[in-house]
Amino acid sequence: MRTFEIIQYPHPMLRRKALPVTRFDQRLSSVARRMIATMYRNKGVGLAGPQVNLSERILVFDVTEERDQPLVMVNPEVLRSEGSRLSEEGCLSIPDVRVSVPRAETVIVKAQDATGGFFEIEAAGLKAAVLQHEIDHLNGVLIVDYLPEGVTLNMARERPSRLAVR
Ligand code: NI
What we know:
Structural class: alpha+beta
CATH class: Alpha Beta
Strand content: 25-35%
Distance between the termini: 44 Å
Radius of gyration: 16 Å
Low-confidence stretches: none
CATH superfamily: Peptide deformylase
Bound molecules: nickel (II) ion
Helix content: 10-25%
Protein backbone atom coordinates (compact mmCIF):
# COMPACT_ATOMS: atom_id res chain seq x y z
CA MET A 1 0.00 0.00 0.00
CA ARG A 2 1.19 3.50 -0.72
CA THR A 3 2.08 5.35 2.42
CA PHE A 4 1.92 9.05 3.12
CA GLU A 5 4.89 11.28 3.65
CA ILE A 6 4.98 12.63 7.19
CA ILE A 7 5.44 16.36 7.23
CA GLN A 8 7.98 17.84 9.58
CA TYR A 9 8.00 20.69 12.05
CA PRO A 10 7.74 23.65 11.46
CA HIS A 11 5.42 22.97 8.50
CA PRO A 12 2.43 25.36 8.87
CA MET A 13 -0.11 22.53 8.45
CA LEU A 14 0.97 21.24 11.88
CA ARG A 15 -0.32 24.49 13.42
CA ARG A 16 -3.67 24.58 11.69
CA LYS A 17 -6.84 23.50 13.50
CA ALA A 18 -8.01 20.58 11.40
CA LEU A 19 -11.50 20.67 9.90
CA PRO A 20 -14.29 18.27 10.91
CA VAL A 21 -14.80 15.30 8.61
CA THR A 22 -18.22 15.36 6.96
CA ARG A 23 -17.89 12.74 4.21
CA PHE A 24 -17.67 9.13 5.22
CA ASP A 25 -16.89 7.71 1.84
CA GLN A 26 -14.41 5.41 0.09
CA ARG A 27 -11.82 8.12 0.07
CA LEU A 28 -11.94 8.43 3.86
CA SER A 29 -11.57 4.66 4.30
CA SER A 30 -8.61 4.73 1.96
CA VAL A 31 -7.04 7.65 3.88
CA ALA A 32 -7.50 5.72 7.13
CA ARG A 33 -5.86 2.59 5.73
CA ARG A 34 -2.96 4.58 4.34
CA MET A 35 -2.50 6.40 7.64
CA ILE A 36 -2.34 3.07 9.47
CA ALA A 37 0.26 1.76 7.00
CA THR A 38 2.22 5.00 7.38
CA MET A 39 2.14 4.73 11.18
CA TYR A 40 3.43 1.14 11.13
CA ARG A 41 6.08 1.88 8.53
CA ASN A 42 7.45 4.70 10.71
CA LYS A 43 7.12 2.66 13.92
CA GLY A 44 4.79 5.20 15.46
CA VAL A 45 2.06 4.53 18.03
CA GLY A 46 -0.23 7.18 16.58
CA LEU A 47 -0.69 9.51 13.63
CA ALA A 48 -3.01 12.45 12.99
CA GLY A 49 -4.37 13.93 9.74
CA PRO A 50 -2.31 17.15 9.80
CA GLN A 51 0.89 15.06 9.96
CA VAL A 52 0.14 13.71 6.50
CA ASN A 53 -0.79 17.18 5.27
CA LEU A 54 -4.55 16.70 5.59
CA SER A 55 -6.59 19.29 7.46
CA GLU A 56 -9.04 16.64 8.63
CA ARG A 57 -10.01 15.49 12.10
CA ILE A 58 -8.87 11.90 11.80
CA LEU A 59 -6.33 9.97 13.84
CA VAL A 60 -5.09 6.41 13.98
CA PHE A 61 -3.25 4.67 16.77
CA ASP A 62 -2.05 1.30 18.01
CA VAL A 63 -0.26 0.89 21.32
CA THR A 64 -0.14 -2.92 21.22
CA GLU A 65 3.21 -4.69 21.04
CA GLU A 66 1.93 -6.96 18.29
CA ARG A 67 1.04 -3.93 16.16
CA ASP A 68 -2.14 -5.60 15.02
CA GLN A 69 -4.93 -3.62 16.65
CA PRO A 70 -5.13 -0.30 14.83
CA LEU A 71 -8.00 2.02 15.66
CA VAL A 72 -9.34 4.86 13.55
CA MET A 73 -11.03 7.82 15.23
CA VAL A 74 -12.78 10.49 13.20
CA ASN A 75 -13.92 13.76 14.77
CA PRO A 76 -12.74 12.61 18.24
CA GLU A 77 -13.89 14.51 21.28
CA VAL A 78 -12.72 14.09 24.87
CA LEU A 79 -15.85 13.65 26.99
CA ARG A 80 -14.10 13.19 30.31
CA SER A 81 -10.60 13.15 31.66
CA GLU A 82 -9.32 12.29 35.10
CA GLY A 83 -6.07 12.29 37.01
CA SER A 84 -2.72 13.40 35.75
CA ARG A 85 0.63 11.91 34.85
CA LEU A 86 3.81 13.04 33.14
CA SER A 87 4.29 11.38 29.81
CA GLU A 88 7.64 11.22 27.95
CA GLU A 89 6.69 11.83 24.36
CA GLY A 90 8.24 12.02 20.94
CA CYS A 91 6.56 12.89 17.66
CA LEU A 92 7.07 11.58 14.14
CA SER A 93 6.89 15.18 12.91
CA ILE A 94 9.62 16.36 15.31
CA PRO A 95 12.41 13.75 15.21
CA ASP A 96 14.94 13.41 18.03
CA VAL A 97 12.94 15.47 20.49
CA ARG A 98 11.49 14.09 23.70
CA VAL A 99 9.28 16.22 25.90
CA SER A 100 7.78 15.51 29.28
CA VAL A 101 4.10 16.35 28.82
CA PRO A 102 1.44 16.56 31.53
CA ARG A 103 -1.49 14.36 30.49
CA ALA A 104 -4.69 13.13 32.04
CA GLU A 105 -4.35 9.58 33.40
CA THR A 106 -7.65 8.40 31.94
CA VAL A 107 -9.86 9.76 29.20
CA ILE A 108 -13.21 8.89 27.70
CA VAL A 109 -13.26 9.81 24.02
CA LYS A 110 -16.20 9.83 21.66
CA ALA A 111 -15.53 9.51 17.95
CA GLN A 112 -16.82 8.20 14.65
CA ASP A 113 -15.40 5.28 12.71
CA ALA A 114 -14.51 5.48 9.02
CA THR A 115 -18.12 4.78 8.06
CA GLY A 116 -19.56 7.43 10.37
CA GLY A 117 -20.74 5.22 13.25
CA PHE A 118 -20.32 6.69 16.72
CA PHE A 119 -18.42 4.92 19.49
CA GLU A 120 -16.72 5.70 22.77
CA ILE A 121 -13.54 4.36 24.27
CA GLU A 122 -12.06 4.66 27.71
CA ALA A 123 -8.28 4.72 27.83
CA ALA A 124 -5.68 4.89 30.58
CA GLY A 125 -1.92 5.33 30.81
CA LEU A 126 0.04 5.17 27.55
CA LYS A 127 -3.06 4.70 25.44
CA ALA A 128 -4.68 7.76 27.02
CA ALA A 129 -1.51 9.80 26.48
CA VAL A 130 -1.29 8.81 22.81
CA LEU A 131 -4.91 9.79 22.28
CA GLN A 132 -4.36 13.17 23.90
CA HIS A 133 -1.20 13.68 21.81
CA GLU A 134 -3.03 12.93 18.56
CA ILE A 135 -6.05 15.04 19.48
CA ASP A 136 -3.60 17.87 20.22
CA HIS A 137 -2.36 17.51 16.62
CA LEU A 138 -5.92 18.05 15.37
CA ASN A 139 -5.92 21.35 17.26
CA GLY A 140 -2.49 22.46 16.04
CA VAL A 141 -0.85 21.74 19.39
CA LEU A 142 2.59 20.08 19.47
CA ILE A 143 4.78 18.58 22.18
CA VAL A 144 7.16 21.54 21.89
CA ASP A 145 4.36 23.67 23.31
CA TYR A 146 4.88 21.86 26.62
CA LEU A 147 8.58 22.68 26.89
CA PRO A 148 9.55 24.46 30.10
CA GLU A 149 9.81 28.20 29.87
CA GLY A 150 13.15 29.28 28.43
CA VAL A 151 13.67 26.08 26.45
CA THR A 152 13.08 26.41 22.72
CA LEU A 153 13.83 24.50 19.57
CA ASN A 154 16.84 25.99 17.92
CA MET A 155 15.80 26.08 14.28
CA ALA A 156 19.00 27.77 13.17
CA ARG A 157 21.09 24.70 13.85
CA GLU A 158 21.93 22.16 11.23
CA ARG A 159 19.80 19.62 13.05
CA PRO A 160 16.66 21.68 13.37
CA SER A 161 15.12 19.67 16.14
CA ARG A 162 17.90 20.16 18.69
CA LEU A 163 16.82 21.65 21.96
CA ALA A 164 18.42 24.86 23.04
CA VAL A 165 18.26 26.61 26.35
CA ARG A 166 17.89 30.32 26.04
NI1 NI B 1 2.96 13.71 17.15
